[in-house]
Amino acid sequence: MEERSRQLRRGFTLLELILVMVILSTVLALAAPSLRGFFASRQIHDAAAQILSLIQLAGSEAASQGTTYRLNFDTAEGMYWLTARQGGSFDKLGTEFGRQFSLPRDTTVELTGASRDARLDYIAFGPEGTFTPATITLTDRRGEKMRLVCPSATEPFSIVEGDDR
């Protein structure tokens, strides 16, 4: 009988399991606000990386196809997309990269040195491998900044974190 009693005591009681669940729930509830901030800060990093990828694509496509590409920004709406010169006008690309991309919610974009056409700012990529030197600054709702910087027409864009000038 004593041996059977020891075998039954190897498991956890329902009260012990409930107590562990309460402790885990409390710890997760305390950690959730900081995790939300972590994921929000990752969104601006991801947006900067996506814009840099489009910049690199536009530069290589412009050189390989011998035409001018533009990375367009609608700063009021937080949208950006690629276009290519076809005939006398700039048309959206007929690929996935030609669709309109949205910045994360509560993120603003500011362009310095970019060209302007109608209500859109844009960065041009020429067939000879040059492009508009500019700075693209993304700012999230907490004030965190990511900058994509191109100091001259022949240097590549790079991502700089923070507000260092």
In short:
This protein is of the alpha+beta class and about 160 residues long. It has helices at about 1-10, 15-65; strands at about 70-75, 80-85, 90, 100, 110, 115, 120-125, 135-140, 145-150, 160. Strand 2 (about 80-85) and strand 3 form a beta hairpin.
Plain-language structure description:
The protein is α+β, with helices and mostly antiparallel strands and 165 residues long. It has a single domain, classed as minor pseudopilin epsh domain (minor pseudopilin epsh fold). The chain has 2 helices and 10 strands, in the order H-H-E-E-E-E-E-E-E-E-E-E. The strands form 2 sheets. Strands 1, 2, 3, 4, 6 and 7 form a 6-stranded antiparallel β-sheet that branches. The protein has a 4-stranded antiparallel β-sheet with strand order 5-8-9-10, covered by helices on one side. The longest helix is centred in the first third of the chain and has 52 residues, at 14-65. The protein is elongated and about 90 Å long.
Order of helices and strands: HHEEEEEEEEEE
Global morphology: elongated
> Major beta sheet, specifics?
6 strands, antiparallel
How many individual helices?
Answer: 2
CATH topology: minor pseudopilin epsh fold
Estimate the helix proportion, in percent: 25-40%
Query: What would you say the CATH architecture is?
Result: 3-Layer(bab) Sandwich
The computed structural class is: alpha+beta
Number of domains: 1
